[in-house]
Design brief:
Length: 255
C-alpha cells in the first residue's frame, strides 16, 4: 500500500465508506462507465434511466431494470463487500453510503446501508409512489433488452416503476442528509469503486476533506493524492480491501 500509513485506518474513530459500481464489479455486475463492460457504453442513459424514458416506453425501461435486478439476484457479494462488512466490526464507528442499487452490501452483512440512488428491490407506483410488493415484480428469467409491461399499482392502477433515482430526479432526502452528516463527522473516508462523476453524491469526498477527514481512494485507476490527507490505492477493491483488513489484523496482533 504505497504511502498509506495503516495507522490512519487503525486509529480512525469514524470511517465513512462511500461505494460505487466498482465495488460490485467482481460480483459480475456491470459498472456504468468502464470502457469495456460499462452499461453506458451499450445503452444511452437518457433512453433508460429517466422518468421521460419510462413515460415514453414503460415496457422497455421496466424490462431493462428487471434484467438488471435478475443479474443482482443471481450474483453474490464479493470479497470487497465482505471486507467492508468486516471493517465495521473492527473500527469504533462505520457509516456505509452507496450509489449502488444492488443489495450486495446487505447480503455481505453490512447493516444500515445508506442508498443514495435507491434500490432495484424497492419498486413503487410511478403515480402515487406507494411501494409495490407484488410477486410479478420479482424478475424470472429476463433477456437483456426484453420489454416487459410493468405491473399496476393496487391502489391507483398507476404503472410500477423501479425504485431507483433517475437522472434529473432528486436524491431521497433522508439518505442524503445522513450521508452529508457522516461526511462532516468522519475522520476517514474510504471511496471505493466510483468514478466520482455524478452529483450530488460525488460531493461527499470534498465535504469530508473540508471537515478535516483523510480520504483514501480505492479504484482500478490511481486518483490524484497528496500522500498527506488524500491517498490512492490503485487496484481491484476485491483484493485491496481484504489485504487492508489482513494488515490491520497483523498490525493489531503486534510483534
Ligand atoms: N475495483 C475498484 N474499482 C473499480 C473496479 C474494481 N474491481 N472496477 C471498476 N472500478 C472503478 C472504475 O475505475 C470507475 O472509477 O469503479 C468506477 C465505476 O465508475 P462508474 O461506472 O461511473 O460507476 P459509479 O461511479 O458508481 O456511477 C455513479 O452514475 O450512472 C449513474 O446512478 C448511476 O450510481 C451510478 C452513478
Amino acid at each position: 500500500m504505497t504511502g498509506f500509513d495503516l495507522r490512519i485506518l487503525r486509529d480512525a474513530r469514524h470511517v465513512l465508506v462511500f461505494t460505487g459500481a466498482g465495488v460490485s464489479a467482481r460480483s459480475g455486475i456491470p459498472t456504468f462507465r468502464d470502457a469495456l463492460g460499462g452499461l453506458w457504453s451499450r445503452y444511452d442513459p437518457a433512453s433508460l434511466a429517466t422518468a421521460d424514458a419510462f413515460r415514453q416506453d414503460p415496457a422497455l425501461v421496466w424490462g431493462w431494470y428487471q434484467w438488471r435486478r435478475a443479474q443482482v439476484l443471481a450474483a453474490r457479494p464479493n470479497p470487497a463487500h465482505l471486507a467492508i462488512a468486516e471493517l465495521a466490526r473492527r473500527v469504533p464507528r462505520l457509516t456505509l453510503v452507496t450509489q449502488n442499487v444492488d443489495d450486495l452490501h446487505e447480503r455481505a452483512g453490512s447493516q444500515e446501508v445508506i442508498h443514495l440512488h435507491g434500490s432495484l428491490h424497492a419498486p413503487r407506483c410511478f403515480a402515487c409512489a406507494r411501494a409495490y410488493a407484488g410477486s410479478d415484480a420479482e424478475p424470472a428469467r429476463v433477456e437483456e433488452g426484453e420489454r416487459i409491461e410493468p405491473p399496476r399499482c393496487l391502489r391507483c392502477n398507476g404503472r410500477i416503476r423501479p425504485g431507483v433515482v433517475w437522472f434529473g430526479e432528486a436524491l431521497p432526502e433522508r439518505p442524503w442528509r445522513e450521508a452529508l452528516a457522516a461526511a462532516r463527522a468522519c475522520d476517514l473516508l474510504l471511496v471505493v469503486g466510483t468514478s466520482g462523476l455524478v452529483m450530488p453524491a460525488a460531493q461527499l469526498p470534498q465535504v469530508a476533506r473540508q471537515n478535516g477527514a483523510k480520504v483514501v481512494h480505492v479504484n482500478l485507476d490511481a486518483e490524484p493524492a497528496d500522500g498527506a490527507t488524500t491517498f490512492t490505492l490503485a487496484g481491484d477493491a476485491a483484493e485491496i480491501l481484504p489485504r487492508l483488513l489482513l494488515q490491520m489484523a497483523d498490525d493489531q496482533a503486534g510483534p
